[in-house]
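May I ask you to review the protein record following this short note?
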Amino acid sequence: MILAILGLGGVGLWFLVAGDGPGKLVGLLLLGLAGIFAFLLWVALEVDRPEPSRSALPMEARRG
């Protein structure tokens, strides 16, 4: 995921700087896609996961 963000961002910047009219539009789209991936990565890292309950353990683990 991190490499996808860096790759899309780098290629998007390259298209934005070196491209003509349609190339600049593609560069903006790639930068937007990299931004969406970065946001999703941030959400995945920051979300609070619920603690597993004791009843969710398999029977072998409950007997000890």
Q: What stands out?
A: The two ends are 39 Å apart (CA to CA). The chain has a mean pLDDT of 84.
